[in-house]
Amino acid sequence: MDLTSPWLILLLPLASAALITLFTLKSPRLSAGISIAAVWGAFAVAASHLPAVLAGHDVLLEGHFTWLAAGGHEFQYGYLVDGLSMIMLLVVTGVGGLIHVYATGYLHGDPGFSRFFACISLFMFSMLGIVMAGNFFQIFIHWELVGVSSYLLIGYYYRKDSAAAASNKAFLTNRVGDFGFMLGILLLYYATRDVVGELGLAAGAGDFRAMAAAVASPGWLEQAAMSVGGGRWVVTNEHFLWVAGALTFMGVMGKSAQFPLHVWLPDAMEGPTPVSALIHAATMVAAGVYLLGRILFVYAPSETALSIVAHVGAFTAFFAATIATTQFDIKRILAFSTLSQLGYMVMAMGLRGTDAAMFHLTTHAFFKALLFLGAGAVIHAVHTNDIREMGGLIRKLPATGWMFVIATLALCGVPPLSGFWSKDGILHLTAHPPEYAHTWLVTLLPTLTAVLTSYYMARLVLLTFFGAPRDRHRFEHAHESPPSMVLPMAALCVLAVIGGPLLLGQDVLEHFRAVTRPAGLPEHEYVHLDRHTVLHALMIFGTGAGLALLAFGLRVIDPARIKAALGPVHRFIDNRWYVDDLYAWIVENLQQNAARLCDAFDRWVIIGALVNGSAWTTRAAGAVVSRVQTGSVRAYVLLFLAGVAALLALHL
Amino acid sequence: MEALVFWIAAAAMVGFTLLTIAVRSPVYSACFMILSFAATAALFVLLDAYLIAAVEVLVYAGAIMVLFLFVIMLVNLRDSEQEGLRLNPLMVLAAGTFLALMTRAVQDLGPAVGSQPNALEGSPGLLADTLFTRYVVPFEAVSLLLLAAILGTVVLARRKEDA
Amino acid sequence: MITLQHWLVLSGLVFTLGLCGVMMRRNVILVMMSIEIMLNAANLALVAFNKHLVAAPGAAVPPDGQVLVFFTIAVAAAEVAVALVIAMLLFRRLDTVNVDDVANLRW
Fold first, then answer.
1. CB atoms B2 and C18 under 8 Å
2. Quick one: which of A439, A489, A569, A651 has the fewest CB in 10 Å?
């Protein structure tokens, strides 16, 4: 039994989920132990391969078995470990492991404790399957599995109506995205089917490397795939490619909550805080970004597709940041912040900056998880999510508070914390974007968004931890969290601080570039620690945080008067730009009416006319025909005679 | 000569049959039927089937019709309550059609070959010869059938108290 | 000249009369008598066919038709016996010999 086999990374969490569900639901501590052991075991296995990956950049571990072979298509299941997946593996298992430990403290005494660990182990299995997938079909299966796990975990407090509704919303919104994703996969599979065979690659169906080679094969792009209108308009593979890109991007939009499929993420905060930290900050929502990194070969040849990706990302970042400025629920603010940062990552992918995006993904996992865990600690202490009922908590929860502040600084991109390096890496991209993305959306908004980020995060920190406590009762009863919660936070804090060059050396982005860059993309410059960049970052932070300080810290500006002055704009933003209301309207008026129509059709035509109707007709016909059997012998004789006469006539 | 006998006997047979089915009283019907059988026997003789003619009179007219008469008496119906033949147009039409079809059917039969007169023809000896050699199995079967009929009749006709 | 057709038409006519009796009389016993008439007509046809069989040269005409008539008469006798017993039982049970009153063979 090879203990470093990557199969273990998949098997350990799966076994954990199965064991807990089947055997240890009644013993919470045993369940937690099994789950934590599985996660850290997976981390150990993944880490054991790290030196190999760091040494030779193209090192690849690959293994698979044929799951299903049918109709000439061979579906394989296995693992693919290269630089890109290694980053994700370490982040998912590492951050995940810390959160597992935190959860034992946070959910202590909760009746569904074991169920939580079973679900979260299932989630780990699903997520790691996405990360290690080598072909489209496996990634899709795990994509859906992750959606299921998310549904189970958001709906953890299933007795609460709002939680049940939120889990449904998450699942359905994801479903819409997954539908597009599936169409994209099928389209790609169809478009490359001939070439993959020609290139002689002995690979399973939808294998990433095989399809990347097919897309890059000479002449494939210009090849005509089909013609419409008798040759008047020819559809080439290039068209297929960017359509497939747009469709698969729908999957990214669903999972990584980009506009317009973002609506589920704020509501997903109904789940327990460890869930929010793990799934909705660090890992699952990053799956979309990871997918983009994996299948960049689909987008790379097509500027249209890349442009879509970049603009959607940029817009989402700005849009979410504006909403975050009006929220009062601590977790909601962090949720919108996550949306905004995800927008940055997606945009970076669209601007061909896979290294910057993946680096930001990593650092974001560190500080955002820390922020959520801190928020969880605060909620645990004061039993409310509303920051209007908090204040001055830094005195009661010093460890939590100062770590929270550090994480905020990292998020706002203050040097020399990790966030500065990754965020400025992305901002640098937007300053010199490629031709197709040279719009104000990409060049201006991200910087503005960064200012807003600093503003709302500073607002959050000031209102929660500093100033006078607004609710005396809650303040009195607030207490610091147990070590099981504080220690993981501390570990994340350390990573958030040093997770840049201090950990990986000056050429941190070089490392990322080396492992993530697919072949054939143009090079570009990287951010260096020079005065210009540092000044830039500090200016952004200063503007935003300064504004917040003036409003909430020093009370120089009155926020209420600003709100009144901005009136309708504020209302628009506060209602999340009315997107949720739009969707509700669509569902109620379009979808429900369509459903009612179908129901009526089903009830009246199919059941009424066809099923019941045919039964009724048969019975009526039978009733009519059975009148022949009068019982009268004479009539029978007559009929008999008629029959004989007919036979006779036939023979004549 | 032969033709004359034929026509008279045929007319008698048809006429008496008609009367059988038409008269109101069952007893009269039975009597007319006996007469019809007599005409049939004459026709059989015309066809050189002497034994059959004899059997016809003996069994049909003698035994079967007597049985009918017994049962009619037993049932003891009053003649006045009986209905005669009620002509139903549909049935008449059906019967007429049937007759027409049959007549049409026999038109196409091959040339009828009259046989040479033979002294043995229709005699009991010839009949018995064929009956007990080629047709012995059906003969035995029919005798079993008669046995069954006898037994059945006896069983069915018993009153419950005799059981 | 009396041909086979004459005999067969006669037989058919008597058969049809018997048929009319079966269909149009309401007394059970009359119906049975009509059935006998039909059987009788069939016998006539059989003997007529027999008469017109072609004989092997020098041998006698095989009397197969007559043998069949023999059997027919025997079977008719048996059938009449049983049928009349049933008619009588019917009369005992239902006190009627009207064929329309026993219309039980229905759905």
1. no
2. A651
